[in-house]
Amino acid sequence: MTLDHPIFARWPARHPDRLQLFSLPTPNGVKIGIMLEETGLTYEAHRIDIMADESREPAFLALNPNGKIPAIYDPDGPSGAPLALFESGAILLYLADKTGRFISSDPNTRYETIQWVMWQMGGVGPMFGQVGFFNKFAGKDYKDKRPRDRYATESVRLLGVLDNRLAGRDWVMGADYSIADISLLGWVRNLIGFYEARELVGFDRFLHVQAWFNRGLARPAVQRGLEVTATNRGE
Ligand SMILES: N[C@@H](CCC(=O)N[C@@H](CS)C(=O)NCC(=O)O)C(=O)O
């Protein structure tokens, strides 16, 4: 079996029958590593070095014209034909539907789960990411702190929304761990870890988020998922 896509000329598939993941352990990237480990799907992971602009190479752009990780190529797509997909929220939803895991089969609860994934994609990701830029990366040296403070203030508000949601719930959707949790864990982890914004956003006051975060990190599949594509194993 050979896979018919330009990406494989640059990143060859050793196991063409498996789902192919192109990623890096960033907050968006780890979502898919975690989901694949949680579901137990067999996959082959390719590490894409975004710092070396590998995500801007023509072979990668053929898979994701937006030039960002994560992206997947599933040789066994839902119609029987292969499916290439980018945008981490769409990939989570696809993998949930493919496996029947981590999304409710009840239609109302299903849409609520999607709603929280959209909330992460449209709010938490972009806002926390900007906090990272202005607090840790190039934006740190800007004298004017208003952009940093604007994104920090919005991130605090979003953490408050999540904290309220998690009051009396183990997971975003209640008793059931779902793709909503999977979409959020890596972002909270980066905000208080790599982005060094724990104090800036007053994380310690969000007790429900803290308890949820620790529950998430305690899951073995989350621990494994955070390491997917951390090294170039090409398995
Ligand atoms: N909305 C996209 C965002 C993807 C994204 O921003 N990926 C980052 C890493 S977390 C990336 O590839 N950055 C490389 C670049 O922008 O050059 C998703 O959720 O998949």
UniProtKB/TrEMBL annotation:
Residues 106-235 form the GST C-terminal domain. One of its GO terms (molecular function) is transferase activity. It comes from the Bacteria. Keywords: Transferase. Pfam families: GST_C, GST_N_2. Residues 16-103 form the GST N-terminal domain. PANTHER family: DISULFIDE-BOND OXIDOREDUCTASE YFCG (PTHR44051:SF19), GLUTATHIONE S-TRANSFERASE-RELATED (PTHR44051). This is Glutathione S-transferase N-terminal domain-containing protein.
